[in-house]
């Protein structure tokens, strides 16, 4: 990997994680609002998680993995890319649940620390999947 490619990947990884923080805020705010409005917490979680996924797709496609100013100006919706993003998001969520259970229950790690460890693993998997599959070049 060339030094320029390595720098670009590091920049993308940092941006990806900054957007992840924004997604977490969106998720939390939507969840809080829905619960405050009387929506049952399970339904609120599904809706708020979905809001975070939509925000993540939009921001990452424009800011993290955009190919340049022209693509960002067009803001053209790519249906296949959106489907790949949804598949990846659901797959990573599906992997995180048994991994969280294993680390917490079988390895007897505190739930908060287990969540932190699993989040580290799933963040890397999500980034690689996004870079190599979801937002790959045409």
Automatic annotation (TrEMBL):
It comes from the Bacteria. GO terms for cellular component: plasma membrane. The keyword Aminoacyl-tRNA synthetase does not apply. Its main location: membrane. It is a multi-pass membrane protein. One of its GO terms (biological process) is polysaccharide biosynthetic process. The keyword DNA repair does not apply. It is found in: Membrane. The chain crosses the membrane at residues 21-41, 47-65, 85-103, 109-128. It holds the Pfam family GtrA_DPMS_TM. Keywords: Membrane, Transmembrane, Transmembrane helix. Residues 16-135 form the GtrA/DPMS transmembrane domain. PANTHER family: PROPHAGE BACTOPRENOL-LINKED GLUCOSE TRANSLOCASE HOMOLOG. Belongs to the GtrA family. This is Putative flippase GtrA (Transmembrane translocase of bactoprenol-linked glucose). It comes from Paenibacillus algorifonticola.
